[in-house]
Amino acid sequence: RKLLWAGQACNAEETHTACIYGRQQCIGGYCEGLGTNEPCWDGYPGGLDLDCKVGWYCLRSICVPQLPRGHTCHGEHPNECLRGHRCNLLSKRPQCALEYSLPDGVRSNEPSLCKSLYVSLITQECAQPPPSDNEGGDCSTDEACVRSDGSRGKCLCKRWWSGLGTPGFCELHLTNAEKPSSVEFWQLRRSHCHHDWPEDRCAKEAGADGLLRLVRRER
User: What is the mean pLDDT of residues 199-206?
Assistant: First the structure.
């Protein structure tokens, strides 16, 4: 049987599919998740909030609405802010902020909130990443991708690796402006997918398999 997650489209008449989280029922053409103050379980391997509806998260075993942009947050749960937002604990008042929106010079505890995708280890502000002597070079671990300020880039797998030499390379630091397919897919995830769905499930549900292939080429 095809197993569907809360929020996915379904047909109650079909016998070869099953809704496996939340209410475990197909209601109104979608697998019904749990809403405000309904008990949930956050121990599923696939995500903390799979029992809850799109736009809700499982806090202390109860589904509660995610917080909108600008709302005070506490960093108690990784998904307390709406899809595409994160809790910036270093703003003057900890609050939910849109990912990839903060300019250089604004304090942030989350690199994903910065337009530059980087937070300075010294100032804890969004900033342009310092140079790395090995950017784009061979690596086996992140330790080989250290930047001049001591922060580490990521050692990514070479999709083209033939078995000779090291299997990885130090990531090239690209902003979202240089990754248009990634921006489009991020916007699609915000509007069409549950925040706990993996990329493949989201792309399949939204009919965006081709876009996801482009995203992976940009990485």
Answer: 98
Q: What is the 3-state secondary structure (H, E, C) of the chain?
A: CEEECCCCECCCCCCCEEECCCCCCEECCEECCECCCCECCCCCCCCCCCCECCCEEEECCEEEECECCCCECCCCCCCCECCCEEEECCCCCCEEEECCCECCCCECCCHHHECCCCECCCCCEECCCCCCCCCCCEECCHHHHECCCCCECCEEECCCCCCCCCCEEECCCCCHHHCHHHHHHHHHHHHHCCCCCCHHHHHHHHCCHHHHHHHHHHC
pLDDT tens sequence across 143-197: 999 988 888 888 999 988 888 889 999 988 877 778 999 999 999 999 999 999 9
Predicted TM-score (pTM) of the model is 0.86
Task: Please state at what angle helix 199-206 crosses helix 180-192, rounded to 10 degrees.
Answer: 80
Tell me the C-alpha to C-alpha distance, in Å, between residue 202 and each of 74, 96, 123, 161, 192. Answer: 28, 23, 36, 28, 8
